[in-house]
Amino acid sequence: MVRDEEIGRLIKYAQGLGVRVSFIASGDDAAGWTVDGSEIYISRKHNRSKIDIVLSLIHEIAHQLYFIHEKNRQPDLKFEEALDRQNLFDYDLAETPAPKTHRKRILDVEVTSAEWWETIYKETNCSFPIWRLHAQKQFDLYQYQHYYKTGHFPNKKQKNLKFKEIRLHYKQK
């Protein structure tokens, strides 16, 4: 019940920013944000729990805040070009990675957007432990940093190990 209310508040918050929120049955990503700032989509397939949905919404709403406050709702052509040049979540290691300059642009947008997570958490009156938010943010940024350095996202084994390490770190605090 509490998570349902948080999801509802986050959807209203997103709508207040001028973005539509859609839930899709499947998809390659857990969630996504359209670079024109018109839609956030959440995949029911990848988000296994309500807290996962809440965290995905916070991640994507942060992109919208980046779009509004950093880009004044104007297209970020360098970011769009970087996204167009590759498929971010293609784990085929034989594929040629995108140029490092494009990977850096994607990382920079993720890092800048992540700065909004705590603001969203507070403004939508989320009640789950803040360490969950910090752990998820660190994990998300780890994935993008790995992508920047290697040209590929971490594989499932690497992600599982890193996620366990991060959660253990935050749970012990």
Name the assembly state.
Answer: single chain
Tally of helical runs: 7
Kindly provide the radius of gyration, computed on alpha-carbon positions and rounded to a whole number of angstroms. Answer: 16 Å
Strand order of the largest sheet: 1-3-2
Q: Which runs of at least 5 residues are low in confidence (pLDDT < 50)?
A: none
Q: SSE order in H/E notation?
A: HEEEHHHHHH
Per DSSP E runs of 2 or more residues, the count of β-strands stands at: 3
- The overall average pLDDT, rounded, is 90
- Strand portion, in percent? 5-15%
Major sheet summary line: 3 strands, mixed
| Shape verdict | globular
Overall domain count: 1
Keywords:
single chain, 173 residues
Task: Sum this structure up briefly.
By secondary structure, this protein is mainly alpha-helical.
Tell me what the structure shows.
α2 (50-69) packs across α4. The chain contains seven helices and three strands, in the order αβββαααααα. Helices cover 59% and strands 8% of the residues. The model has no long low-confidence stretch (mean pLDDT 90). The chain has helices at 2-16, 50-69, 77-84, 100-114, 117-123, 130-150, 156-171, and strands spanning 20-24, 31-33, 39-43. The two termini are 27 Å apart. A hairpin with a 5-residue loop joins β2 (31-33) and β3. It is mostly helical. The chain has a three-stranded mixed beta sheet. The chain has one domain.
